[in-house]
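Incident review: delayed structure delivery

Summary: a single-chain prediction request sat in the queue longer than the usual turnaround. Root cause was a stuck worker, restarted by the on-call engineer. No data loss occurred. The affected request and its eventual output are reproduced below so the record is complete for anyone auditing the incident later.

Affected input:
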Amino acid sequence: MKKFLFLLIFNFYAINTFAHIEHYNNLKKIEMEIFRNGEIVGYNYYFFKNEQDQTIITNQFKFKVTFVGKTLFEVEGYGEEIHISDKLISYKSKTIQNKKNKFVNLNYNPKKNKYDIEGSSYTGEASLENVVGNWWSHKILQTNSYISPISGSINEQVVTFIGKETINLYGKDYETEHFKLSSKNNQLREDERLNFDIWIEKKSSMILKVSYSYLGDWEYRLKFFE
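Output delivered after worker restart:
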């Protein structure tokens, strides 16, 4: 189940083409719709609040898949990230996945210069090279490992640049750069492996679309931002 809960050796080409959180200073909201087999099953929203050098990003997401009147899986959650001057200071989330509670409490430890994590899947320390694996930030494509926004687990990844592509979303064409995100450990079970395709618009640094296949064909599509 980890695979479709977001996320995840990088190419220096991508590292040098994007800015960091300063690029999102003027954002107020990002709306993504979640599709499975071409049908809308949920949403993923991000809200931004900027105060001087502090940025607070809250995340709300929910999706539900049913078959013949029965719920196959259902996920709903809320998270909050706090950044100060492009540095992640804290992240907290609560998620209900198929009636099971999952959580993350992450805080920056200035004495150790590391993250302290207490999560439903992992408790311990993490290097500052990790990012929280949310789809609002292109920094997920600039790291060798990320922290699960659902459970706090640390996942090693490989990101590969595929090429430049034009995609159409909601009747509008976008010039994008296409990346493949996969697990570094290819011995993981299929349901634990990362295998995402990600399209990002270079000029805005926005992730426009994410797709993967597991118990169906899934897509996260950027519908609106302001």
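Verification: The chain is about 5% helix and 60% strand.
Action items: add queue-age alerting; document worker restart procedure.
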